[in-house]
Design goal:
Strand order of the largest sheet of chain A: 2-3-5
Chains: A alpha+beta (183), B alpha/beta (657), C alpha+beta (580)
Order of helices and strands of chain A: HHEHEEHEEH
Radius of gyration of chain A: 28 Å
CATH architecture of the largest domain in chain B: 3-Layer(aba) Sandwich
Number of strands of chain B: 15
Oligomer: heterotrimer
Largest interface: B-C, 57 and 48 residues
Strand content of chain A: 5-15%
Number of domains of chain B: 4
Number of strands of chain A: 5
CATH architecture of the largest domain in chain A: 2-Layer Sandwich
Distance between the termini of chain B: 10 Å
Structural class of chain A: alpha+beta
CATH superfamily of the largest domain in chain B: NADH-ubiquinone oxidoreductase 51kDa subunit
CATH topology of the largest domain in chain B: Rossmann fold
Shape of chain A: elongated
Distance between the termini of chain A: 57 Å
Amino acid sequence: MSAPHTPAPQDAPEGDHPPLTASEKSYLPSIVKGIGITLQRFFKPNFTVQYPEVGPYDYAAQDRAIGEVNPRHRGEHILVKDEQGREKCVACLLCMAACPALCIHIEPEPAPWDDRERRPKVFEIDMLRCIYCGYCEEACPCDAIRLTPKLYTPTTSRTERVYDKERLLENNPEAQVPQRPRK
Amino acid sequence: MATALPTADAEVIEREFSADVVNELEQICSRYPERRAALLPALRLAEREFGKVDLGGMQLVAKHLGLSPAYVLGTVTFYTHFRRETDGTFVIELCRTLPCALRGADDFAKHVEQKLGIQPGETTEDGLFTYKRAECMAACDKAPLVQINGYNHELMTPEVFDQIVDTLRDDPEAFDLKGGRKTPLAWHEPADRSATRTLPEGEKDYEYECLTHEPLLLRRCLKGRYTTYDEYVKDGGYKGVKQALNMSPADVIDFVKKSRLRGRGGAGFGCGMKWGFVPSVDQKPGPRYLVVNADESEPGTFKDGKLMEGDPHLLFEGIVIASHAIGANDAYIYIRGEMTYGAEVLNAALEEAYKNNVFGPNALGFGKRLDCTVHRGAGAYICGEETALLSSLEGGRGYPRLKPPYPAIEGAWRQPTIVNNVETICNLPLMFDKGLDWYNSLGTPAQSAEEAPPRGRMGSAGPKIWCVSGHVVRPGLYDVPFGITIRQLLHDERFCGGIRDGRKVKGVVPGGSSFQVLTADELDVPLCYDAVADAGSSIGSAGIIVMDETTCMVNALLNVLRFYDHESCGQCTPCREGSGWMTRIVWRIAHGLGTMEDLDTIDQIANQACGRTICVLAEAFSWPAQSYIKKFRHEFEALIKESRPSPGVCAPMLGGK
Amino acid sequence: MSDAASEVEAKTTISITIDGDAVEAQPGDNVLQAAMKAGKMIPHYCWHPGLSVAGNCRMCLVFATKAGPPNKPVIACNTQVVEGMEVETKSDRVKAAQEGVMEFLLINHPLDCPVCDQAGECDLQQFSYDYGRETSPFVEEKTQRPRKDLGPLVRFSGNRCIVCTRCVRFCDEVAGSSELSVVNRGEMSWIDTFPGLELDNPLSGCTVDLCPVGALLDRDSIHTTRPWLLRSTNSVCGGCATGCNVNVDTFQDEVKRLTPRENQAVNRWWMCDEGRLSYREAHEARSGVAIDGQEATVLAALERARAILGDLDGGATVAVLGTGFATNEELYLLRHLSSDGPVGLAYRADGPTWTGKDGFTISADKNPNREGARRVFGSSDLAPDDVQSELTAGNVALLIVHDAIPGGAEWSPELVTAAAKAKHRIVISHSPSPFASGADVVFGGLHWTEKDGSFVNGKGRLQRVRAALTESGARVSDVEVLQELAVARGLAPRVLSAAGVFRKLATASPSSFGDATYQRAGDAGVPLPGAEDTVAPEDAHSFYPAGPKSRGHNRANDEQVRGSVHRKSAAGYGTTRGDV
C-alpha cells in the first residue's frame, strides 16, 4: 500500500484526495499492524526500572546497565560521621549562609566533648526547596555535609521531605567514606 | 617561655607580715613618690619572709600597696627571678646563653641532669634542688656559670659541682652559699676555695688584668672585695664631684657635652646631649629623677656588675654629679635581680655614703637633698631598655613605653628622667677630676663636618672597659681606651692571648649578642663607635663574644634567637610573634629539617619586624639573624641540603619547640 | 598682617592631608581619629576612644611627615596631628607594613572560625581580608594557651587572644575593678584573673564587645547564632533609669542578645550585665488575652472593651493604675483616659547603684520611665492610695490597670481586693497579673523590646524605643488598646501611631516635653526642658560605634532596617512603626 499522498499545500486542490482503497476503508490492516508492533514489543527486552524499589544504578537487578548514576551526581545529602561516630558538623552555619534556596536550618549548641566546642542541636534540610546545587558542600570547612549520588526518595507528604539530623546521618551509609570523593 | 602559673583552683594561703616587716615596707614606700613603686621590693620581702612568692604573698602585697591581686600576679609572672611555690630549697640556675654555651655549658648541663636526676624546670623528689636553665647572668668570662639561690658560682666544673651538691645533700646548712664566702661581703676569700672551685692545673688565676697602663675605671676593682668609703677617699675619690658641684648645672651639662662622653649601655647617644633635653622647671615643674641602669643583661656584657661590686663609690660620685646637672633630688639604681651580691654591696656602700653625707638632706654640704635608692629587678632582659626599666621601677610589668614622649621630657612618674648606664656614670668623676684635656686625649678624635659629611662625627672619647668572652685564652674585662683593633685585643699576649687551643677565630660579635657578627677578616677594625658602625656592626655594650672554628654558626644563631624569644616582653605583635617564629625556623634548620625557603622566610620576618615595634628588641633578633645568614650562609645551606642536624659547640634547644 | 593674624586666630582646626585628600582635624586628635572622622578607615585593634592608648597591636602603622624620623612608620593612634602633616595610609609601604603585622597576628591564631562566635563580626577576619596577604610561609606548630571561664558572663579562649589589652584597660579605667592582667611574657602571654577572683564587675560583658577577636565571648549567647542572621534594632534598655542605648539583635522573632549602642550623652559605649541579660524577660511568663477569665482572641477582646467604654456614662469615674515601665505615650493615654479620675503609679523597687571609674552609673532606680511619668502627670509620686480609697468607696465605674513591669508590680493585696469593687475592669499586663481574675478583659502587654514609644531617662533625656519583635497577629500594642478605649469613650477621633500620640503629648505639655519630636530624638535622644543632660542629638554620636568595627559590615546601615520591624497589628492597623 502506498503511503497516502500528501500534496504540497500550495498545489493541493481543495477536497481533492486520492480515493481510499477497500482495505484502507475497513481500517483493519492499520489496526493489525499497530497491534503487531505492540505484540512485538512484548517479547523484546524492556528497560523499565522498578523505581523506587530498585534504584537506577542497581543494575545487578537488571540485565544491562541502564542509567548508571554518575558518581558526581548531586543527589541527597548526608551528614558525615567521624571515626567515633559523631557528626563532623560543628554548626558553623556556613552552609546555611551559602544556600541559595534557604533550605537549611541549623541551631548550634555547645558540645559536651573536649575536642570540639559546638555541634548542631537542630539540622534540617527541606529537600523540596533544595536545588541540589552543592554550595553547602563547597562551603563546609569540615567535610561534614556531602551531596551523594542517591536520588530522591519519593514520599507521600511534604513534611516527610524535611530531613532532620538523624535522617541525614543515616541517609546513605555507603557514602560515609573517609575521603570526600574528588569532584 | 612561661613561668609557672597557678591554676584557677589553687589554694590561697592567707598570710600576714609582722609589725617589723610592715615598718620595713613603709620605709621602702617612703623612698618612692608612689606606693606602687615598692611592688618589686615588697615582693622580695614576701620572698624573704615566706621563703617564696606564692598566691598568699601576692594577695598580701596587693593589699598593702593598694593594688589589685591580678595586677600583682601579672607582675610576678613576668619576671623569672622570684622563688615560686614549686621551687625547692636550693634553686640551681645554669646559664645557657651564647658565651656560656661556647665554653661548654650545655655539656655541663648534661652532667647536672645526671647528677641531680632531673630535667630543667623540675625539682628533685626530696624537694632539695630545683634545676633551671637561665639566661645570661653577666659573668661571661667565668663561664660556665651556675647560680645557687641567687649567688654566683663561677668557672663551674663537674667535680666542684658534685662537691657542692653532695655537701648540700648531707647537710643543707653546711655550705655558705655566698660563693663560699665567710662574711657576707667578703668576696672570693681563699679561706676555703676548694669548696667553691678548683682550677684546672696550670691555669692562671683570673684576675682583671690591664697591662699596658694603669687601669682607669677598674683600678679599685682588683682587690676581690669592694672598695670602702675610706679607701676610696684616700685614693683620691670624691674630688671630681666637688669640681662639678661648684659649677652651675648648665655648665656641667656643657662640660659633659664637650667631653664627648657617649652612653655606654649600648646606644652610644651623647650623654651631655641627653641631659640637655631635660626641660627647665618653668617649662615642666616638678621633680626630676636620675635612674642608673644597672640591669646588665646583654649576653657577653659583664662590666657594670664588676664595677659596682668593686668600686661602688665611683658610681655614687658619678650619681651626685649627674643629679646636680639635671636637678634631680632622687636617684635610683635599678640593678638586675640576679645580681644578689651586687645589691648587697651597693646597699652596704650606700650606708657608708649616707653616714658620710654623700647622700642625705645636705649632700656633700652643698645645700640640696639627694637620696639614692637601690631597686632590685627580678629577672627580665627587657628591663634594660630605658622605658621598660621605668615601667618596672614604677612597679609592674616591664613593658617598654611608646616614644614620644621621651624619658627626658616625661619619664618616671611622668617627670623628666635621665637613665644612664653604670659605666657612663662612672666616667663622670674621672672627667671632672682630671679635666677635659685628659679625657679627650683618650680614644678617637671627633671629626668635623668636612671630614665626615654631613654633620661630622663625635668620635669616641674617654676610658672604656671591654668584656671579652668565648673562645679566647683569657676572657675577662679589659680597661683599654678606644682605638685598639679587635684583632689586637684578641691576639695580643698582654690581653686575651689569642684563641684557645691554638685554633683560629671564626666570628666575633663586638657589642653583645644583639649585633651583627664580624668574620675573621673583618677584625682589623678599631674598636670605637664609628669604625665598627662603618663595618656593619656596633660596639653596643662592649660585649665581645669570640667564636672559633669549632663553632657551628647555625647553633650559635639558634642560641641567640632563643634568648630573644625568651626575653621578649610580648607587648607588640611583630616581636612577640616574630621572635618565636624565627626561633622555630632556625631550630628546624639546626635539626636538619630546614628548607631553602626558610632562609628567605627569615629575611622576610626580619624586614617585617624591624622598625615597626615599640622598642628595638625586634632589631636585636633580626640583625643577628640576617648577618649570620649573610656571612655564614654556606653553613646553613649545608645543613639544609644534607638534611642533617648540626654538630658543634652549642647543643640544640632543650625540649624542642 | 592683621588679616593673617585674625585668620590664624579664627582657625580652630588643623589642616592635614591623608592620601592627598585635605582633612580638617581637631586639635588634640591623633591621626587615627582624624582619618576615621573623615571617613577613612585605618585598621587597628588595640586603640579605643574610651580607653588609654596602648599602641601594641601595631596594625595602624602609617607613614606621616612631621612625626619623628623620616621614612619610619608610626602608629596612627599615638601620633598627634600637626599642621601640614602628610599622612599615607594606602601607599605600597603602608600596605607592606599592614600585611606584615597581619601575618604575624595570624601565625599563632587557631583556625577556629567555624566554631568561634566572633565569626562574622571579627576584626581579625575583616582586616585580614581587607589588608592582609593571602599566603604565609609559616609551617610551625602554633602556641597553645588555656581556655577558661573568667567570670559568670565571660569565656576566654587563650589561643585566639592577640594580647591587645583592651579588656585589661577597660577593667582598670572604666570599671575600676582591675580583675584582669596579662600574665607571663612573650608569645606565651595571655589574659587571666587572680585564682579565686572572677571577672565579675557589673560591666564585665563590655569586655566581650571590646575584644576584637573571639578570645572573650559572652557565655549567655555562646554557640546559639551567627551575627549575619541577626536583625538589629536601635532601642533603649528598659532595665533602669540610665537608659543605655542598645541594639536589640533578633532572629526569627526571638531576641538573641542585647549589645550596647554608642551614645556619648548617656552610656558612651557601655552597658551593664544585668541590662544585657534583661531581654530574657520578653520570652518569660507572659499574660494572655482573656474575656471574663476565658481565653479569647484579641479582636474579640477589643470588641468587648470598646463596648464597655461606649457604655460608660459621661461623668463616670475611671481609675487608672500604671507603672514606671510604661512609655510616655502609654502614660499620656492613661492620663487622658482617667480624665480627672484617680491615678496610681507603681514602680519596681530600687536596686543597687554602681558607678565605675570613668563615671558610668547604673542607676538605683530600676524603672526606665519614672521621669517620663513625672513629666506626663506632673508628679511621679502617685501612690495608689487614692485609687484604693475610691475603689473601696465603690465610686469607680472602670478600673484600667496597665502593668508593664516584667514579673508584675508589687501591688498591695488590699488594692487587689479593692479592685473587685470596680464595676468594670480592663487589665493590660506584661506578666500574669493578680488583677486578671475577675477582670472583664485582659490584654497581654508588650515588653519594651516589642513596642514603639519613648522613655525619659533619669537625666531628662527623651529616647525612643523601637519594636524589634513582630509577633504579628499574636498581640496588639498597648498604645493601640488604650487608644481604642479612648476612641470608644469619645475622647479621640481615631487611633494613631505611637509617633502620632507623641505629637499630641508634646503639644499638650510643652513645658515638660519642649519641642521634642521623634525626628529630633532619632537614635541619639534629645534633652527635654530642665534636663540634667544637655547634649544635643548631633553631639551624642562620635565617629566610633560600639562593638567590633566589622560589626557594621554585616548589618544594614540604613534607617529602614535599623528601625522598628513592620508590625502588622492584630487589630488590622497595618504598620505600627513609630516613625513619623
